[in-house]
Amino acid sequence: MRYLPLLLLCLLAQGCTQTQKSLGETVKLALLGPDDVEVTAEQVEGLPYASMYLRVNNGQRIFVVLGFDENGQQKWITRDRTMIVTQHGRVVKTLGLADNLHEVSNLAQDPLADPLHLSDGAGWTRQLTWSAEGRFHAATAISRFTRLQDQVLDLTGHRVACRVWQEEVTAEGKTWHNIFWIDTTTGQVRQSRQTLGGDDVSVETTILKPAKS
């Protein structure tokens, strides 16, 4: 792991429209080499932006900062202009990856919208559209939630008590599992391991500094 000084933080201005709640500038961390990035608590707290670690398809862990927060969705932009869009901690869209998640329907009924009242056996049905190896896929996905043992995460020196939920997802004849670590105080998803469509794209997120509501 590498500790990167604040001198490596690059500020890239982003335009905004009247429909966007601009957070000012999109901040990206300059990355050099193949190692996982690790930032300090001082670096995280010194930035006026929400931030997280991101890993895609078991690749390098990188540090990204929130670009925009609009209509209940958070848009995280990486150094190579890939965009990861989350809602209630769930990845609901990606842009710029080799394979991308295009759309998730019925988000208003996602059990993660009210995570502190999530119960064992809770279900959710939605439509997914995604691309994999140049081919477009559309499927109905059915989820069932199971509570696992609670855990305490150490996030840049802060201990965060979390409820841990496993989501079993079935679509296109395949079954996979997502895991969400939910802050017992705020109800925010602080860490997750998610598969976006079939077994084509995996994403891991760790929220270091949550977005302000």
Low-confidence runs: 1-33
CATH topology: YmcC-like fold
Q: Encode the helix/strand succession as letters.
A: EEEEHEEEEEEEEEEEEE
Give the biggest sheet.
13 strands, antiparallel
CATH superfamily: YmcC-like
Distance, first to last CA: 31 Å
Helical content band: under 10%
- Our count of helices gives 1
Structural class: mainly beta
**Overall pLDDT score:** 84
Q: Rg from C-alpha positions? A: 17 Å
What is the name of the CATH class? Answer: Mainly Beta
Strands, count: 17
The global form is globular
Count of the separate structural domains: 1
Q: Provide the β-strand percentage band.
A: over 45%
Characterization of this structure:
- It is a single chain.
- The chain contains 1 helix and 17 strands.
- By secondary structure, the chain is mainly β.
- It has one domain (2-209): YmcC-like (YmcC-like fold), CATH 2.40.360.10.
- Strands 5, 6, 7, 8, 9, 10, 11, 12, 13, 14, 15, 16 and 17 form a 13-stranded antiparallel sheet that branches. A two-stranded parallel ribbon has the order 1-4. A two-stranded antiparallel sheet has the order 2-3.
- β14 (158-171) and β15 (174-183) form a beta hairpin.
Brief characterization of the structure:
Helices cover 3% and strands 54% of the residues.
Draw up the topology in text.
Blueprint: E1 2-3, E2 9-13, E3 25-29, E4 37-38, H1 41-46, E5 51-56, E6 62-70, E7 73-77, E8 83-87, E9 90-95, E10 101-104, E11 123-132, E12 135-147, E13 151-155, E14 158-171, E15 174-183, E16 189-195, E17 202-209
Parallel strand pairs: 1-4
Antiparallel strand pairs: 2-3, 5-6, 5-17, 6-7, 7-8, 8-9, 10-11, 11-12, 12-14, 13-14, 14-15, 15-16, 16-17
